[in-house]
Write a structure and sequence with these properties.
The protein has 259 residues and is α+β, with helices and mostly antiparallel strands. It has 7 helices and 9 strands. A 7-stranded mixed β-sheet has the order 5-4-3-8-7-6-9, with helices on both faces. A two-stranded antiparallel ribbon has the order 1-2. The two termini are 18 Å apart.
Length: 259
Amino acid sequence: MLAAEERLPDFAVTAKILSEFNSININDAGRLARHCWGILGSRLAPDSAQELTRKCEAYGVKTITLFSTGTAGFKPAALIKKASFADGSFSFTNAAGLSMNVAAADILVLSAAPHKEETVKTVKSVEGPSGGEKALRLGIMAATGLPIGMGKNKEVKKEVRTSETAFTLDIILKQPATRLRLTPADFDFSCLREKKTCSSQTNFYLLCAALSLFAPGALKNTGLWAIIEHKPLSALPYDSMEDFETETRRLAALAAAVQ
């Protein structure tokens, strides 16, 4: 069962619905609400589905019940490297160098989000004896008179973890199971022409806005709405790519249901 509106219901309202329906405390329901992204229930028996529908109606939340909200049939996202807007179409080239044109009506969903990317690097360094080791050796030399030295340097390997914010845009097409993916690090933003800046993040935002204007009928996710309404993305609950995928699945299911 999905929330039927493009925009998600209020978080507090969703938490109350899930708390009452699942008979759990509001804190646990809040955690469910944070990650359900409008997918309010799945694999529900008919009686349970009716009960959840009634609770949603009581809080003013419209719902739609589908047989499946999964990504069954989705092909792996095709990474696109460059694109252009010309003659009423959006032309793009994928990582394999293949090009394709799509009309505005062919775009069902535009979904963008920030997420954390963690990298791990192994750093090698040469370290000498620690202060404690030196003090111990000095004590031994003072007590015995033997020149035992201060010890040898040794190579030390350390793992250094860094985390930075990355951005992803998924474009769901009407063509069955077609999903395009764009990431700033792998995309040529020359399609922005004179609007292109030296900031990949700003370019990403500009492209999201351009696609929204090009395909006004496409459903937009929370992240993309935040971008075009100039709202901060840092407060959005995209804790992982799984959150992004879940939200995109709901919108894709909604879009497919009205085709």
